[in-house]
Design brief:
Blueprint lengths: L5 H15 L3 H23 L2 H18 L10 H19 L1 H4 L5 E3 L7 E4 L3 H12 L3 H11 L5 H8 L3 H19 L2
Antiparallel strand pairs: 1-2
Helix pairs in contact: 1-2, 2-3, 2-4, 3-4, 6-9, 7-9, 8-9
Length: 185
Amino acid sequence: MDRHHPDVNEELIDLLTHTALDERKAFARLYQLAAPQLLGILLRHVRQRALAEELLQDCFIEIWDHAPDYRPERGMPLAWMGRIARNKAIDALWQSPNEASSAPPVLFDPGAGDEPLAVLSERSETSALSDCLRHLPAAQRQSVVLAYFYGQSHREIAGILGSPSGTVKGWITRAVAHLRECVGV
């Protein structure tokens, strides 16, 4: 599917509109068109096909539930659904950190250049970090994960989360401060 083609976007908008009216045939067609792209997003994040497929089902449940909230004037339909997929993947990574990666995370203080704050190498420290991340507001948690685990810039994160770059920078700064205090670094 060429997601930039106007006809495809119009069809997806139409399908979301009909899905919002609880039309199952429209939802089935929406799944058929969007599932491959959303699965690709999920696989890039979680790197496990079984988990990505499970999350894909969760994404479409959320799409079904929130189809009435979609507004075409606020963005392309695949971008809206892609945000749902990315959020599901990020949440899954924090709910099961051992499944996502065996490598410990590295945190950097955005206010101090590229100096590492700490390299968390002990399993208990990684678990403590996961616990601390769970206590962050969703936007801060997603911002810090996208920045430090996926190497996204503030501008890229702003595009993913649909927020201004300055807001994202503030979220990351507050999240890092919280994490430093929480894990005792």
